[in-house]
Structure to design on (297 residues):
């Protein structure tokens, strides 16, 4: 997973590239009500019930969320929205605010609980800590202004996958197969196909890598092979190539629904590759579709 050495690292991400101050919040597992509320609210772009000074201004919110399993902390971040730094819905009972960001919070990675003090250069409690951007640490050319090929790569962060209960008005659980497929694809490409320099940006492209011939390739994984799924994947690949730089483009689809017969010829003529997958007893099995010799573009 992505590890952050300093709070200043956050200002170098595309998410925070225009932000000069963030408020950092530590959400401890022992404070059960606030902890559960944040678990439910972070994907909705909200962080719950913080004692924020109404006169403090900031452009981003970082939530350090204790992991329910193990001695780790999840790092979530988002850009604030609105003229009041995202402060909304003040509770009259105790003066606490809810913080709202643009879209959902982005999960940036994990860190050890012992590293929190080094992360902030102080020990945060459950109160807010304000951190200002140190301009002297900014690179001469911000990475988002570099040509795509020259931008530093994060490496591959395995996606969240498996079962997780989601708290809503009425609870339900979801099985996130997409993450399992992406992680299995990364293992297959690296171990069986000789790919290197795997890269993904959580919330953006699924996977980018270089094959043994040093050809860049961009992958988009779908869990179904209907018209909407394939049309969406085609658009995503076009947009994500602006971030990764010129790359061969490949869509990864489930083998069922006669996928290869339905889509391979069409994708081939668009110069887009196809990999199909099926689930076997030992995990996912991937097959790259090879065009017949009589096909011509």
């Amino acid at each position: 997973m992505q590890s952050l050495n300093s709070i200043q690292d956050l200002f170098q991400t595309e998410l925070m590239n225009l932000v000069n101050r963030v408020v950092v919040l530590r959400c401890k597992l022992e404070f059960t009500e606030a902890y559960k509320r944040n678990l439910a609210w972070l994907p909705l772009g909200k962080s719950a019930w913080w004692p924020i000074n109404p006169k403090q201004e900031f452009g981003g919110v970082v939530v350090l969320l204790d992991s329910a399993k193990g001695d780790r902390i999840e790092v979530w971040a988002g850009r604030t929205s609105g003229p009041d730094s995202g402060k909304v819905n003040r509770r009259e009972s105790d003066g606490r605010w809810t913080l709202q960001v643009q879209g959902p919070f982005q999960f940036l990675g994990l860190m050890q609980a012992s590293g929190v003090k080094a992360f902030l250069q102080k020990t945060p409690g459950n109160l807010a800590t304000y951190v200002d951007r140190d301009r002297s640490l900014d690179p001469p050319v911000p990475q988002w202004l570099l040509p795509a090929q020259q931008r530093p790569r994060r490496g591959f962060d395995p996606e969240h996958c498996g079962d997780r209960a989601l708290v809503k008005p009425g609870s339900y659980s979801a099985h996130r197969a997409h993450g399992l497929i992406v992680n299995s694809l990364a293992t297959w490409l690296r171990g069986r196909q000789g790919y290197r320099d795997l890269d993904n940006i959580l919330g953006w492209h699924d996977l980018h890598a270089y094959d043994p011939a040093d050809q860049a390739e961009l992958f988009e994984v779908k869990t179904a092979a209907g018209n909407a799924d394939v049309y969406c994947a085609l658009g995503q690949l076009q947009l994500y190539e602006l971030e990764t730089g010129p790359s061969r483009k490949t869509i990864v689809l489930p083998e069922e629904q006669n996928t290869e017969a339905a889509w391979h010829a069409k994708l081939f003529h668009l110069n887009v590759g196809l990999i199909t997958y099926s689930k076997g007893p030992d995990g996912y099995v991937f097959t790259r579709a090879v065009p017949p010799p009589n096909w011509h573009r």
The first helix runs from residue 32 to 41.
